[in-house]
Amino acid sequence: MEQVYWHQGLTIRQLGHNQVPQIHELMLDVVSRLPDDVLFAADEENYFHKVMQQNGEIYGAFEKDKDKLMAYTVLACPGTTENNLGREFGVPEEELSRVWILDSTIVHESVRGRGLQRYFNQLREERAKALGGLYLYSTVHPDNKASIRNLEAAKLKLQFSRPMYGGLPRHCFAKKTLAKKPDFPLRKSGFCHRSMR
């Protein structure tokens, strides 16, 4: 049964593979109006399918009683691959499978100002903890002040800064949660992530 959430007049629900074209279309639309294209590393449709195939989740926001996607957010599981940035901020090797990425969030201009990024951060953290997540991280461009404020509001702390995604400057924010170990084994993922831009 699908879980549905509500926030500031928007319906929030988990998205599936059949909504990937809508996700990608919204991303391209919003990114096309950013003041600088280095602020967000755009993804191809295949990326969103991989997130879902590798235990990740994507949530979308819709205006009440409408089917038009207005915002989305990605919770990704990097598994124990070499792409898991947890190693760089001190996660022990045996806990790498419990690292989750607060990955990209896109919000259409018409629904901004409703606190969606903060709500999405809270939702993704709760979902990660429910799935046994112990560490969260996100990457963000140093000039993306709104996203940095939202990560800091979610109690993530700056861990390091370095070029990523083909040489683009990025900060990595992270935190440890208070999740308990799940009653089921987490699948090792081969997913190669791209984080919140």
Features:
197 residues; alpha+beta; Aminopeptidase; eight-stranded mixed beta sheet; 4 helices; 23% helix; globular; disordered C terminus; N-acetyltransferase domain-containing protein
What is the topology?
Blueprint: E1 4-7, E2 10-14, H1 20-31, H2 45-53, E3 57-63, E4 69-76, E5 99-107, H3 116-130, E6 135-140, H4 145-153, E7 157-164, E8 168-176
Structure report:
It is a single chain. The protein is an alpha+beta fold and about 200 residues long. The protein has one domain: 3-Layer(aba) Sandwich (Aminopeptidase). The chain contains 4 helices and 8 strands. An 8-stranded mixed sheet has the order 1-2-3-4-5-6-8-7. Strand 1 and strand 2 form a beta hairpin. The longest helix is centred in the middle third of the chain and has 15 residues. The C terminus is likely disordered.
The mean pLDDT is: 87
Total strands: the figure is 8
**Assembly type:** single chain
Alpha-carbon Rg, integer:
16 Å
| Unreliable segments of 5+ consecutive residues | 183-197
By secondary-structure content and strand pairing, the structural class works out as alpha+beta
User: Which fold name corresponds to the CATH topology?
Assistant: Aminopeptidase
Alpha carbon gap, first and last residue: 32 Å
The major sheet is characterized as:
8 strands, mixed
Spatial strand arrangement across the major sheet: 1-2-3-4-5-6-8-7
* Helix proportion range: 10-25%
Task: Note the beta-strand portion.
Answer: 25-35%
What's the short story on this structure?
The protein is α+β, with helices and mostly antiparallel strands and 197 residues long. The chain has 4 helices and 8 strands. It has a single domain (4-176), classed as Aminopeptidase.
